[in-house]
Amino acid sequence: MAEPNTIPGYLLRNESDAAFSSHPAMRNKDLGIWQTYSWADYTENTRRFALGLAALGFTRGDKLSVIGNNRPRLYWAQLAAMCLGGQSVPVYQDAIATELAFVFEHSETTVIVAEDQEQVDKVLSIKDQLPALKWLIYCDRRGMVGYDDDIVKSFVEVQELGDEFKTKSPNYFEDEVAKVTGDDIALMAYTSGTTGQPKGVMLSHDNLVKTTRIYLDHEDVRQGDDFLSYLPMAWVGDGLYGLCVSLMVGSACNCPESPQTLMQDLRDLGPTGIIAPPRVWEGMLSTLLLKGSDASPLKRKVFSYFQDLADRIENLKFEGKPVSGGLTLMHRIGEFLVYGPIRDQLGLRRARWCYTGGAPLGPDVFRFFRGFGINLKQVYGSTELSGLATLQPNGEANPDTVGPPCKGVDIRIEGDNSEILVRCAGVFSGYFKQDDKTAEAIDSDGWFHTGDAGLINENGHLVVIDRAKDVGKLSDGTPFAPQFIELKLKFSPYINEAVAFGDGHPFVASMIAIDFDNVGKWAERLALPYTNYMDLAQKDEVRKLIADEIRKINLRLPEVSRIKRFLLLTKDLDADDNEITRTRKLRRGVIAEKYAPVIEAIYGGRQDVQLALDVTFEDGSKSQVDSHMTIDEAA
Predict the structure, then answer these.
(1) Is there a domain that residue 2 lies in?
(2) Over the stretch 376-415, which tens digit does the pLDDT of each residue have?
(3) Per-residue pLDDT tens for 28-61?
(4) Number of domains within the chain
(5) One domain, residues 433 and 366
(6) Could you tell me if residue 230 is inside a domain?
(7) Are residues 600 and 503 both part of a single domain?
(8) In this structure, are 142 and 237 located in the same domain?
(9) Residue 143 maps to a domain
(10) Beta strand residue intervals within 532-607, DSSP E
(11) Rounded to an integer, what distance in angstroms lies between the CA atom of residue 36 and that of residue 597?
(12) What share of the chain is helix, strand, coil (3-state, %, to 5)?
């Protein structure tokens, strides 16, 4: 049988091929129970919903958006749109109404499939701003009694319409799938918008299918593998590493019950592979370090010893030096006492490979997990590259690189700012309704200008330094890459976010958002009372705690890069307040403007600063909080 060249083509192959049809395609956890769907179930549910959409007037080129946590019905809805020649436009489930209004209106979405009542209410609150919207379909019927808006229907209702449609046009679904070509747009993924409004990245079936094949040529993914589908559906990584890989290999996507039960569901499942952004790995590490600090003195001593041992061995491997027999023996003992049990606790005992991507991961965090026997590797890509450009081979994982270019991917470094350019089959078809931006991003030879600064090292691996526009210099001419310092700071379990300053200034300074949960637990152990985030962050004891963390970090930094002054923010950086993106990337321009008085006070030698900060709620309404913040010297 010829290999399909579209995503719907793989769906029909998995239904008709006996090697796939009865095997698990997807699981969903609800009320503590995992429900399994075979590929035959998966395809039939998609077919019924697609025919229901056809009955409601959905045609080729139409856009369907999904919003909510990862749920089988939201995946089926996306595939149903693609099977009819339409496009999927997933959005972030935690986006506020104003953000949703922009994406839905800009993309000309005609159908929105929402997970539950909360998402339905958000859409209805902005319905008047969405002239193209025809139908709002909900998956979970809980709480949906009394909704009488004409555009609102249930997922089940639409599938029942599909059953009726099929009796009149029994071959319609297969005929429409046959019309889909590799050049058709399958997915419109919106960028995170670090410098302005998000852009709609149009990815064709060719982009996604060919990029998935490149990935599968480099990684050992097998039929029957299990992935945990928890990443935002709006992130291109979920579309590539979840949806497309699952379809093409026959592996199973597993949807956790809720974000709150994620770690328990991870332990239940024990996936064979996982991809997670740095924030997840940093969170796992913070939890482990805090549990270690709460353990008995003997357990703390054992954990600390074997953690240091793992770090020493990883450093030897990194430097290409041999590991002595004594260290190897002790590592085997550590595998029994510490490393294996911790992988079990994290749910990663079965994992053959784990990825970090979407943003850089600090080298200390990277080495920690590698040292504990987790095959953590870095992957580099972007929405415009369908999610993949480089991937570290198993034996060449390195915290300072993102691996060599994948076969079929060309990379070069260009210009005074060392910008990374990429050319491959995954380069997107263009930005929706923004031809000028497309022309800026893709040159006449097909090279995509990533906006990242980097270099190719002597081993042929790509090193990503920072966003090209963020690399600067201290006032004495010393190069300054803020991301390098921020990653070091976030290794501390007590620091959630950090923003480093230094470009054009005489020294490096930082604004820090504490990890409220971890610092709160620390305060409780000391019987230190506090009322809220603001109160806790400005406690003298907490400022001393963070000062001590910075002192440890400064010891591992070159002298010119050491942090001289810092300030603890009275609120965490928040996507709702436009300070970070939904993928937790810093919006540096917004931060620089919003916190300009803070930056001025830090470099002006002042000891404190008063600032009125806007706080945005989910409905888009705003409030203002007066903050008094103390500026501290770093040892």
Answers:
(1) no
(2) 999 999 999 999 999 999 888 888 899 999 999 999 999 8
(3) 999 889 999 999 999 999 999 999 999 999 999 9
(4) 3
(5) yes
(6) yes
(7) yes
(8) yes
(9) yes
(10) 563-568
(11) 55
(12) 40, 20, 35
Q: Does 205 share its domain with 225?
A: yes
Neighbouring residues of 474: CB distance < 8 A, sequence distance ≥ 6: 480, 502, 503, 504, 505, 506, 507, 508, 560
Q: Which of 450, 469, 488 delimits the end of a domain?
A: 469
Same domain, 479 and 618: yes
Give the residue among 467, 510, 503, 457 at the shortest CA–CA distance from 486. Answer: 510
Look up the CATH number of the domain holding residue 435: 3.40.50.12780
The model's pLDDT over 508-564, given as tens digits with 9 standing for 90+, comes to 999 999 999 889 989 998 999 999 999 999 999 999 999 999 999 998 888 888 999
- What is the per-residue burial (b if ≥16 Cβ within 10 Å, else e) of 481-491? bbbbbbbbbbb
The span from the CA of 529 to the CA of 543, in Å, is 15
Which carries the bigger pLDDT value, residue 314 or residue 388? 388
Q: In what order do the strands lie in the sheet with 24-30?
A: 33-38, 24-30, 252-255, 226-228
Distance CA 586, CA 616 (A): 17
pTM, 2 dp? 0.87
How far apart CA 48 and CA 170 sit, in angstroms, is 11
Contact yes or no for 500/486 (Cβ under 8 A): yes
- Alpha helices by DSSP H, listed for 295-406, are 297-318, 325-334, 340-346, 363-371
Domain boundary among 444, 469, 494: 469
Q: Residue type for 204, please?
A: S
Question: How far is the C-alpha of 197 from the C-alpha of 455, rounded, in Å?
Answer: 29
Cα→Cα distances 426→31, 297, 350, Å: 39, 52, 30
Q: How many CB atoms lie within 10 A of CB 324?
A: 11
